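Sample entry (317 residues):
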Amino acid sequence: MGISVRHLLGIEQLSPTDITTILDLAESYVDLNRQANKHSNVLAGLTQINMFFENSTRTQASFELAGKRLGADVMNMALGASSIKKGETLVDTALTLNAMNPDLLVMRHPQSGAVDLLSEKVNCAVLNAGDGRHEHPTQALLDALTIRRAKGRLHRLSVAICGDIAHSRVARSNIFLLNKMESRIRLIAPQTLLPSGIDKFGVEVFHDMNEGLKGVDVVMMLRLQRERMDGAFIPSEREYYHRWGLDVKKLANAKPDAIIMHPGPMNRGVEIDGDIADDVTRSVIQEQVEMGVAVRMAAMHLLADGLRTTKQGEATC
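Predicted structure, serialized as tokens:
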């Protein structure tokens, strides 16, 4: 068992076999996480450093919990008081951290490509917890695990991704993953919230929710990322909800057993009706959170195995 990459920088670098390997291992960690004793020693003796240059309660907590349950020594960098605030470059920070001999580095950064740069400067395995508008690979993997458990497969499903596509690394990673698994992807958004070059993504594009949701198996809503907007992308929140927010009437266009997803945090009454978000017969939003811990455990487990194999090979040379 193993994957073909040394770092988890994005879904784009993963093969369908890599994706399936991660999800299959994550299934075993779902079971472990539901037991009274949730701990393993897979990462015993290894050090995990979490570097979050952007706030993220869910992702950081999930990675921290995943590392601790696998037995790693976990350190969260207090970036508000770090050398970055004093003008140190990311490369210098990477070199300093590398000198501490960590085994796993988890990083979220506002600049696209920052995680790739870090991976070139360190000897350990690097996991991308979100970089700019580029990718958020573990979110796409946990979404995939959630879908697979609910639908029994990932192949040849019809998935609608709705909302702020332009600013969403979650959408980008999900598009890569779902295309690799041969699912049909529909993007539903106003023109102002679609990225340039969308015609090259292998997706169908809709501007009307009712039309775009017809017959889909999965409805994935996205958060309006106002912190990344530098202009008037939507007329108003009220108008946005009227046209692109998920409510009972719009949802009726999807298949009767379609599941509802959202990466969180949600803006209720803007992107999604609160009653729909809380509907346990359709919504899998809480399951997504649970799957996140299991997927991150699986990803770190596999990267650590690859790291050990590499070090053993170097030792015998």
